[in-house]
Amino acid sequence: MDTDQTPIIPQPEHEETFWDRHRFTLLLIFTVIIAIVLTCVSMVMYTASGAAQLDLSRPGYQSVSDKVDRETKIDEYDAFGPVTTGTIKEFRELYDEQAAKAKAVDAFNGDPLNPEILEASPTTGE
Amino acid sequence: MNTAYARIFGVALAAVLFVTAVTPQVSAQSAEIEVSRLQSISENCVSIKNTLNQLHASDALLRVNRGQVYESMASRMMDKFNTRLSSNSLDAKATVSVTTGYRTALDTFRKDYQAYERQLSVAIKIDCRENPGLFAVAIDDARSKRKVVHEDVQKLHQYIDDYRSAVGDFLINFERVGQ
Lengths: 126, 179
Description:
Helices cover 48% and strands 0% of the residues of chain A.
């Protein structure tokens, strides 16, 4: 009676390489590296584009983050339609209203960084 | 002749003596002011930092609120009217030209605000108790950059007025042609 000597689990024909043995670990490492690189790129873009300065959810801006003006909105003029004396005058009236909203605040006026104002503040919290 | 030379020499000598006598006093005065300023910065460091932090936040809010309005003026009013004129085959060169100038001014406003905000952040990070001199320089720089931002705002307001004038001129021409 012959007995079959063939092993149930086939033996590999060649030795496993480093990559074969650590495939999963290397996959995880590469994934983390790619995630870090993409995060760095997006942070650079976030800072360089000026988006960071408009982001009021950043630390230091919590006191004003709920004060964003949602009331002052510029109305939209219809880009399509006929042009008549009436429509131009209508546009001019609408424009005057919106221009008044835009010019209502003389933003960044004053001189709060003047040393005489800034540095003469009374000492507090010392 | 000799008397004239002597007079000129005398006047020149007097001038030199006056300048050499006054200049050290002026520079000593400015040095005194500088020293007292640095001392004031060191002493009021905490309150100055608080003021700067408040200004930093309130200016950011102002930038967001005004930026939205300025952007909308271009996209919701100027661009739309220019499109309407063009779609009716009318000459919109003047209004388009003002809109282009307005957009350029808006870009400058954005960039100048970024430069100002960065400079103010730099100043806030400096330890004003340890480095009052460096802090004073940073604040002076931020101050001049804030003035530039205010000038940009005034330019934007001027362009808004210019666009209104351009529409007025267009209306006059349109009525003249229509008659």
